[in-house]
Amino acid sequence: MTKEILYPLEVISTGSYVPEKILTNDHFEQLNIGTNNEWIVNNLGIYERRIASKDQCTSDLASRAAIDAIEKSNLNVSDIDLIIVATATPDRLAPSTACIVQEKIKAWNAAAFDLSAVCSGFMFSMSVAAQYLKTSDYNNILVIGADTFSKFTNYKKRDSVFFGDGAGAVIFQKSKKSGLLSIKIHSDGRGKDHFTFPAGGSETPPSAKTLNDENHYYEMNGSAVYDEATKVLPKLINNVLKASDCNIKDIDLFVPHQPSIKTLEKIAELIGLPRSKLMTNMGNYANTAGATLPFLLDQLNSSQKIFRGNKILMATIGSGWTYGAAVMIW
Q: Is the pLDDT of residue 285 over 80?
């Protein structure tokens, strides 16, 4: 017998958008930054990624994904009553990117705010949406994950190969037949320096020096990300499985954040998940940060690889550290 649904909700529709420009691994070989196509493919599982144009910002990608999701639903824009945008690359420090998206899609009936948990942003946002649907009068919640890390990438460094730009969107409604059996989110601020933007905030405001020192690009400790992900996520996944009265054999699909193929394969091995149930899209799109989960969900949903009643396992890790896992009945 299936455990009672903790947070009843239904995925009404999904949407996504990626920019047209493609950057292949050959580009990075030509930069002479100490990497090559073979290493990138074998270790990260990435062949190419999409890059936003100079006149595209995060809200542009987010708005396109939002419109895609709305057009696939039976809703009008006016039916959306809450917009949450998960992003680490906002258009501006103020206002929120969610407010800018609201204006671009003309969702005038919606409240709107951003949530910052980097690559775990959609997981955290989904947990917030679940609470609102369970305890408030909100009926149609649009959750968007969107990032344009290419705007903050130092292409003189080897870790510039990791990220691509993109956006994914999911519309949630109340439901009695589907939803989250369990969701757990956690943070550990001791990891704050392993993926960070050194300047641009109140700690180190923008200045001529921070620009000259190239401190507005992200800095990443890739080995620390791998070590943390393979240490904490298997434990967290086992916790949500237990809380859901499930075991790994009950899971139909594992839809994770996309840090690297080696990270995901190691996690799958540690939790006893067959490789066939591990879903990825990093080959063509790299790590799209806050967009990875909703973007991948849309690809699976649009290609009819997810069916009503499927048990979906999701897991993410992001800067902070932030991490989360959930089991959903689709």
A: yes
